[in-house]
Amino acid sequence: MALTGVIDRLKNTNLEEIGVSFSLADLMRDLKVEGNNVYIKLFSPSEKYHEYLKEKTEKTLKSIGAENVEVEFTSEPPKQQQQPPQPPPQQNPFESRRRIPGVKKVIAVASGKGGVGKSTVAVNLAAALKKKGYSVGYLDADMYGPSGPTMLGAKDKQVVATPDNKLIAPEAHGIKMMSIGLLLPSEDTPVIWRGPVLFKALSQFLFDINWGEELDFLIIDLPPGTGDVQITLGQTAEIDGAVIVTTPQDVALIDVKKGIQMFNEVQIPVIGIVENMSYFVCPDTGKKYEIFGKSKTEDVAKQYGTELLGKIPIEPKVAEFSDLGIPVVLAKEDAQSTQAFMEVAEKLIKKLSEQ
Ligand SMILES: Nc1ncnc2c1ncn2[C@@H]1O[C@H](COP(=O)(O)OP(=O)(O)OP(=O)(O)O)[C@@H](O)[C@H]1O
Ligand SMILES: [Mg+2]
């Protein structure tokens, strides 16, 4: 076996299962390769992870042809490094996560790709849960492109603060809500925050909102993609689960995979996938058309160990009522999308109760 091949393999073996962002190669302090026999010394100050690291190393190296793998541990920090790596548990960036006050269950609605209907799904899920009798909040965490105020008809809602500087969430259609859109002087005001200011604002949104009575569910509408907002959320707040929204096309599904991987990395359980714009039912003939082709979402969900929570049809009423500021679930009882959203909400409640 070639030494470089062994090192490359170790570099590509991440340790995210124990919540750290480095690879096996980062822990390596000594390595000898003789034929197919490998001796490796790993840095690990805590015995707690020895068994895991030993097994992981053996499995990794045997997969590339090693016959005997001898693993030793050292707790001595490397001499050349001034700051020795911390033991894995202390490096876990998720240990400082806090629960969002005043909320029982927190659900993040995300998508790998923009424009797939994430906000529509988030708002209608909130409405569906409300319709089922739960107390619900909606947090628009899309700091650069908030659509919550439009979709919930809340553009004119005033936000006031409590004496201890908590923003009081106004209510729209019985749903408590907060969006950066409510705090900007006008809809056209661009948000030009950069890193630290964005984090501060997001942190305030997560922890300094007064939601009134305790919420059964808080739905967080995320911006598209796998960027800073998602990572900050994962590192600072305890999220009970993520729902990933997609459309049936392959290009959107590629991004679903990225989304699932990101949530795995930030240790947020993926509750399931909602496929939006799945099909269109012709109102004249009742015939169903799969406009974007045959869906593969269910296969992808299975492949990644999650499930398809439901398929939402393309229905002009969804967009019409959205623009009017009323979620279709509350506006049109008999719409097919309403039925589909109610079913997704039911599955969601069931899955959360099994956690
Ligand atoms: N099932 C549907 N039927 C008809 N129109 C829909 C449906 N779902 C979403 N739309 C429309 O598609 C547009 C995009 O939806 P939406 O804003 O919810 O997407 P998004 O994923 O949140 O976008 P962004 O990535 O910009 O945040 C909106 O005009 C919305 O009304
Ligand atoms: Mg959106």
UniProtKB/TrEMBL annotation:
Gene3D superfamilies: P-loop containing nucleotide triphosphate hydrolases. Coiled coil: none annotated. ATP binds at G112, K113, G114, G115, V116, G117, K118, S119. Keywords: ATP-binding, Hydrolase, Iron, Iron-sulfur, Metal-binding, Nucleotide-binding. Residues 73-98 are annotated as: Disordered. The keyword ATP-binding applies. The keyword Metal-binding applies. It comes from the Bacteria. GO terms for molecular function: ATP binding. Pfam families: ParA. PANTHER family: IRON-SULFUR PROTEIN NUBPL. Binds and transfers iron-sulfur (Fe-S) clusters to target apoproteins. Can hydrolyze ATP. Homodimer. Belongs to the Mrp/NBP35 ATP-binding proteins family. This is Iron-sulfur cluster carrier protein.
